[in-house]
Design brief:
Pfam families: GDP_Man_Dehyd (PF16363). InterPro entries: Arna-like_SDR_e, NAD(P)-bd_dom, NAD(P)-bd_dom_sf. The protein is α/β, with parallel strands linked by helices and about 325 residues long. It has a domain at about 5-185 and about 220-245: Rossmann fold (3-Layer(aba) Sandwich). Helix content is about 40%, strand content about 15%. The chain contains 13 helices and 13 strands. Helix 7 crosses helix 12. The longest helix has 22 residues, at about 95-115. The radius of gyration is 19 Å and the shape is globular. About 45% of the residues are buried.
Length: about 325
C-alpha cells in the first residue's frame, strides 16, 4: 500500500493556511505544516483543528527567511503551498524591511529549495492588491500591476521571482492570486471580522476606515479549494501561469456593513477612525475578479455566496471561546 502524498504548507498556522491544511487532509494528503518559530511553541489556528485532522499533520517550527528551515520542510514533498507572508497593509507602512525579508527573500528561499530538491509542484500565493485600483473591470490576470503599498510591492516582488524561476529554470510553479478572502479565523486587521467581532462583543457603533472602496469577497473554504485545484491540476494546464481566485462580485465597505447588520439582525452605526484610513494614493478603491482562467483550467468555482459565507463567519465569532481570542476594542493593524 502506498503512503499518502506529502503536501508541505508554509504559513499553515494562519487563517487561510489552517483551512488549506484541513482541505488537504480531507483530500487524502499528509501535511507537513510550517509554523513560524516562537518561544511559546504556539501552533496558531492549527491548535483548534479536530484531532482526526491533526493525526495527518506534522507540525514543524521554522521560518521561510531561513534556508535550512525551508529545505527541511519541502524535502520529499509532492507539492508545496507557499502561504507564509506578512499581510497587514497598515503595518507595511511602518516596517517595510520586514515585508521584503519575508515576502521577497522568503519566497526566494522557497523557490530555491523547490528547484534544487526537484519538488514536482509549487503553488505560490499572490494577492489582488498587486493590481492596485482597477483600471478595467473585471480584473483579469493581464491587468497592469500597480503596487500602492509596501505590502503590495513585496508581494509583487515574490510574484516576479516565481515567474522568473519558471522561465529560467523550469521550476514547476503556479501562482494563485486570491481576492479578498474572509471567514472563520481571520484576523481583526480585515474589515469583515472587524465589523462582526465588534457586534459580537456588544458594540452597536462600529469603528472603520473609508467606506467607499469595493472588494470581491471570497469565502475561505472556496479559496482553499482554489489552492487544491491548482496544486493538483495537470502540469500542462497550470504551471508557469497566474490565476485569479474570486467570485466576480463586488460590494462597497458601506454596503457590506449593512449586509452584516442584516445577517446579525442588528442596526449598525458607523464612525470613521482616521488612523484606519490609508493614505489617499495608497488606497485601492476597486477590486473585482475575473476568475474565468482558473475555471477553464481546473473547473473551480466558489460554492458559497457572500451572505452564506457571512453567516458561517458570524457563527464562528458568536462562539465566546473564539471571540475571546480577539481584541475587538482596539485597532488591529
Amino acid at each position: 500500500m502506498t503512503s499518502a502524498p506529502i503536501a508541505a504548507v508554509t504559513g499553515a498556522e494562519g487563517f487561510i493556511g489552517s483551512h488549506l491544511t484541513e482541505a488537504l487532509v480531507a483530500a487524502g494528503h499528509r501535511v507537513r505544516a510550517m509554523v513560524q518559530y516562537n518561544s511559546f511553541s504556539s501552533y496558531g489556528w492549527l491548535e483548534t483543528l479536530p484531532a482526526d485532522v491533526l493525526d495527518h499533520v506534522e507540525v514543524v517550527l521554522g521560518d521561510v527567511r531561513d534556508n535550512g528551515s525551508v529545505r527541511s520542510l519541502v524535502a520529499d514533498a509532492e507539492t508545496v503551498y507557499h502561504l507564509a507572508a506578512l499581510i497587514a497593509i497598515p503595518y507595511s507602512y511602518q516596517a517595510p524591511h520586514s515585508y521584503v525579508d519575508t515576502n521577497v527573500t522568503g519566497t526566494l528561499n522557497v523557490l530555491e529549495a523547490v528547484r534544487h530538491l526537484e519538488v514536482p509542484r509549487l503553488v505560490h500565493t499572490s494577492t489582488s492588491e498587486t493590481y492596485g485600483t482597477a483600471q478595467t473591470v473585471p480584473i483579469t490576470e493581464d491587468h497592469p500591476i500597480n503596487t500602492q503599498s509596501p505590502y503590495a510591492a513585496s508581494k509583487a516582488g515574490g510574484d516576479r521571482l516565481a515567474d522568473s524561476y519558471h522561465a529560467s529554470f523550469g521550476t514547476p510553479v503556479v501562482t494563485l492570486r486570491p481576492f479578498n478572502t474572509f471567514g472563520p479565523r481571520q484576523s481583526m486587521r480585515a474589515v469583515i471580522p472587524t465589523v462582526i467581532g465588534q457586534v459580537a462583543a456588544g458594540y452597536h457603533t462600529i469603528t472603520l476606515g473609508d467606506l467607499r472602496p469595493t472588494r470581491d469577497f471570497t469565502f475561505v473554504k472556496d479559496t482553499a479549494q482554489a489552492f487544491l485545484a491548482v496544486g493538483t491540476a495537470p502540469a500542462a494546464t497550470v504551471e508557469g501561469r497566474t490565476f485569479n481566485a474570486g467570485t466576480g462580485g463586488e460590494i462597497s465597505v458601506g454596503d457590506l456593513v449593512r449586509l452584516i447588520g442584516k445577517v446579525m439582525d442588528t442596526d449598525l452605526d458607523v464612525t470613521e477612525d482616521e488612523q484606519r484610513v490609508r493614505p489617499a494614493a495608497s488606497e485601492v478603491m476597486r477590486l473585482v475578479a475575473d476568475a474565468s482562467r482558473l475555471r477553464a483550467a481546473t473547473g473551480w468555482a466558489p460554492a458559497h455566496d457572500l451572505e452564506q459565507g457571512l453567516a458561517h463567519t458570524v457563527e464562528f465569532f458568536r462562539d465566546p471561546a473564539n471571540l475571546a481570542r480577539y481584541k475587538t476594542g482596539v485597532y488591529n493593524i
